[in-house]
Amino acid sequence: WPEQLRPHRAKFTMAMCALLCLLGMPMVSQGGAYIFQLMDYYSASGMCLLWVCFFQTIAISWIFGADKFIDCVHQMMGVRPNRFWYFCWVFFAPATMVFIFGFYIVQYVPAKYGPYVYPDWAELIGIALSLSSMLWIPGYALYYLIITPGSFKENLALGLTPNMKSRAKVSASAKSSALQMSESSAGLLSKNSSFLNP
C-alpha cells in the first residue's frame, strides 16, 4: 500500500521498530533462551522448511514441469542441465523429503533445553508455531478448490495446471545478439557449465 504508507514513512518505520523491539524483549529476559530454543525447534529449523521445500519441488517438477524448468535454465544460462538433474527434481528429492519427514514423525522427541523438559502447554505452542507456517499451502489449495466454480475434478485439474504463458524459444544467435555478455559473466558461465553437466 505505497499510496497510504509513503506519506507516513517515518511514522510507519518508527512503529515497526517499536513493535519488533517489544516482540524481541522476551528474548533478552531470563527465559529468553528457553523461548528461543522452543521457536528454533518447532518453527525455524527442520520440518517447516522441509515441508515448504517439498511443495516447492512438487510445484516446479510435477506441476510446472521439469522439462519446462530445464528449458528455463537453458534460456537463462545458455547451458542445458542433463537428465541427472531431471531425475533428482522429479523423483529423488521428493522421495527423500517424504522419507525424512516420515522418519521425523515416527522418531519425534519433544523439545528440551539441556535438562529442562518443556511442559505440555509449551509444546502445544511450539506445534502451533509449526502449523502456522505449514498449513498455508494445503489451506490455500483447499480454499482454491472450494471457491473456484465447477466440479471438484475440474477444479483439481485447473489447480494443477500452470497458468504461466509459455515463452517463445530464443535461438542462440538471437540470444547472444540481444544479451551481450561481459567477460566476467562468460567466465562464470563456463565454470557453471561443468556443474550442470557432470
UniProtKB/TrEMBL annotation:
Organism: Graphocephala atropunctata
GO CC, any one term: plasma membrane
GO biological process, one term: amino acid transport
Membrane topology: Multi-pass membrane protein
Subcellular location field: Membrane
UniProt key word Membrane: yes
Alphabetized PANTHER family for the sequence: SODIUM/CHLORIDE DEPENDENT TRANSPORTER, TRANSPORTER
Keyword field: Membrane, Signal, Symport, Transmembrane, Transmembrane helix, Transport
Residues making up the signal peptide according to the UniProt record: 1-31
PROSITE patterns listed in its UniProt record: NA_NEUROTRAN_SYMP_3
Protein name, entry field: Transporter
Protein family membership: Belongs to the sodium:neurotransmitter symporter (SNF) (TC 2.A.22) family.
GO MF entries: symporter activity
Stretches that traverse the bilayer: 41-64, 84-105, 125-146
First-listed, main subcellular location of the protein, grouped into a coarse class: membrane
A family per Pfam: SNF
